[in-house]
TrEMBL record:
One Pfam family this sequence matches: Aminotran_4
Enzyme class per UniProt: transferase
Record key words, sorted: Aminotransferase, Pyridoxal phosphate, Transferase
Cofactors, names only: pyridoxal 5'-phosphate
Superkingdom in the source lineage: Bacteria
UniProt GO molecular function: D-alanine-2-oxoglutarate aminotransferase activity; pyridoxal phosphate binding
Gene3D superfamilies attached to this UniProt entry: 3.30.470.10, D-amino Acid Aminotransferase, subunit A, domain 2
InterPro entries named in the record: Aminotrans_IV, Aminotrans_IV_CS, Aminotransferase-like, BCAT-like_C, BCAT-like_N, Class-IV_PLP-Dep_Aminotrnsfr, D_amino_transT
Complex formation: Homodimer.
Taxonomic source organism: Ectobacillus ponti
Name of the protein in question: D-alanine aminotransferase
GO cellular component assignments: cytosol
The gene coding this protein: dat
E.C. designation(s): 2.6.1.21
Record field: catalytic activity: D-alanine + 2-oxoglutarate = D-glutamate + pyruvate
Amino acid sequence: VLFGDSFVDTSVQQPYISLEERGLQFGDGIYEVVRLYSGVFHLLEPHLVRLYRSMEEIELKPTFSKAQLVRWLYELVEQNQFRGDGMIYLQISRGVQPRNHIYDPQNVPTLYAYIVGKERPLSSMQQGIKACSEQDIRWLRCDIKSLNLLPNVMARTSAERKGCTEALFVRNGIVTEGSHSNFFLVKNGALYTHPATHLILNGIVRQYVLSLAHTLEIPVHEEMFGLRDVLQADECFFTATTSEVMPMVQLDGTAIGTGVPGPITYALQEAFSEGVK
Ligand code: PDD
């Protein structure tokens, strides 16, 4: 079961998308990925806050209220009788309009969402993953969760061809984030991550991990750092809705710290898991 206002063709029970849908032609839209554990939403509210912020930043005006959207999301879970671990992909684009670079701010947006099962990545969280550095060639509004993911897609594919699970973006010598995750390093017991500027997406799990660190009394520095700092770090990890707290144990073939996930990463994983039960 999916939902979307204008666009489920009830005669065939198939969703359809118009040829002149701006999300398709221009990537003119935004999205969210929300996690469910045992059929229960995880961190839904901050995802909605970010969704509305993304819409506002691109002048996309929803034709539905936030309360309506929340009702649809719960209906999606109920109609699918979804009780497992999974995720909802939710996309809102500018809608249908004769192809033109100029958008009409009054255009009716297209909304759709669907739910899929997704297990927690427990074994990679235990073992850690390898990452490869890639040039961050994205635009200067990475804070918007835009549909334009071509640089992310290319970087991750390039990293995968070099035997890596994630790409670590570097812009002008500064490590920004992963291709689909945020990035943290641990040095001398303190946590470092790129500040939430227009150069990164302020991840929901990033924000959550910062709050967990606060509770665990782990010092946090939202500061810029370079690749050398990463290679000299004691521990490193990525965070994302689908990856949780994912240790990075190797970068470009060089082991990080002892080459296995470290104690602070582990403590944050534990604290995260506590919130999932
Ligand atoms: N990606 N940075 C980028 C570029 C991302 O695409 C994501 C999420 C994150 C982490 O954000 P969050 O903690 O809110 O998931 C950071 C999603 C999961 C995706 O595109 O699949």
